[in-house]
Amino acid sequence: xxxxxxxxxxxxxLNELSESxxxxxxxxxxxxxxxxxxxxGSQMNNTSPRKWLLISRELGISDQEGSPNRWxxxxxxIDQDAIPTLVEVKRSTDTRLRREVIxxxxxxxxxxTAYWSIGELEFLYKKxxxxxxxxxxxxxxxxxxxxxxxxxxxxKVDTNLKAGKIRLLIVADIxxxxxxRIIEFLNEQMSPAEILGLxxxxxxxxxxxxxxxxxxxxxxxxxxxxxxxxLGNQTQINEEEYWKVFHNxxxxxxxxxxxxxxxxxxxxxxxxxxxxxxxEYGFGHSIVPVTxxxxxxxxxxxxxxxxxxNGTIEIxxxxxxxxxxxxxxxxxxxxxxxxxxxxxxxxxxxxxxKRPNFDLIRLEKKRQFGCFFTSF
Length: 376
Prior knowledge:
Layout: E1 4-8, E2 14-20, H1 25-34, H2 41-44, E3 53-61, E4 71-78, E5 84-89, H3 100-115, H4 118-131, H5 136-144, H6 150-163, E6 167-172, H7 177-189, E7 194-204, E8 209-216, H8 220-232, H9 239-266, E9 271-275, E10 286-295, E11 298-302, E12 305-308, E13 312-315, H10 329-339, E14 357-359, H11 366-375
Helix pairs in contact: 7-8
């Protein structure tokens, strides 16, 4: 290695750092576990940088139900949108980094989505927190920044796993050009899964060490394809397709609850909007009752709530906060108080300008369902 970087300190001294191999693969693995920001979340999505929750290191994967683990994944992280991120680490001196690692991580992807259970992942997460002397519940609440319920987060993880909405990440100090081309090719073809490479170069000086992450594999073509597909979901899905997706993602019981709501609201709104960009964030597609109202000299669309195919219902405070009746904080509080009478629903005051959601299963009982109806 011959690359060099220079650091100018406050005293005007220039420090020279030279690119260096990692002494061991375990060293790089440990750095990622301790400093997840090295996974370059802002490079993956600069408008909504990825945050990382470490579930486990050396996570076992079996190749059939009930059998012993056949492989061990280096790390499993989950981002704030509940997308599982499988991380495999190799040093550039490891010859398996050229092509073998691709077969390896695809094996992991195929079998983890088939055989991991959400209960197992929750257990391993708690075990990892114990190793770092952290409270798992507090850590997860802080990670989610009170944007969603913990139980809903784990349900979304389960939904994404079953749907194959995962991220595969190969990490090394140098990604060889042969491997880079394979990653780029696969990423252009894969959906909803994606595969990326990450170089974490190490520069070492007398008393300093600098780590420089660089994401690779996101070609213009792959980004455009995925974006077009997401945007296409806004207009191209019909109601029949929506219910098929709903059943696949959330099952018969929640689909039944959702259909009761849609049947109730269908004749009370001007039209049903079906689509949305939620598939990008793990929610799936939505069905939204829209009422057109004349407010002043403009026609406005009023969107009270969205029913998502991941089995949640979202209250759209954010979207109609400046439109009567929700331009009044008192009316927002009243709606939240009414919804909070539903067992298991809790919408705090600091969510009255956002889009809080809750699981449709909360409306399974007749009384709870009635509480929802009388709220709108």
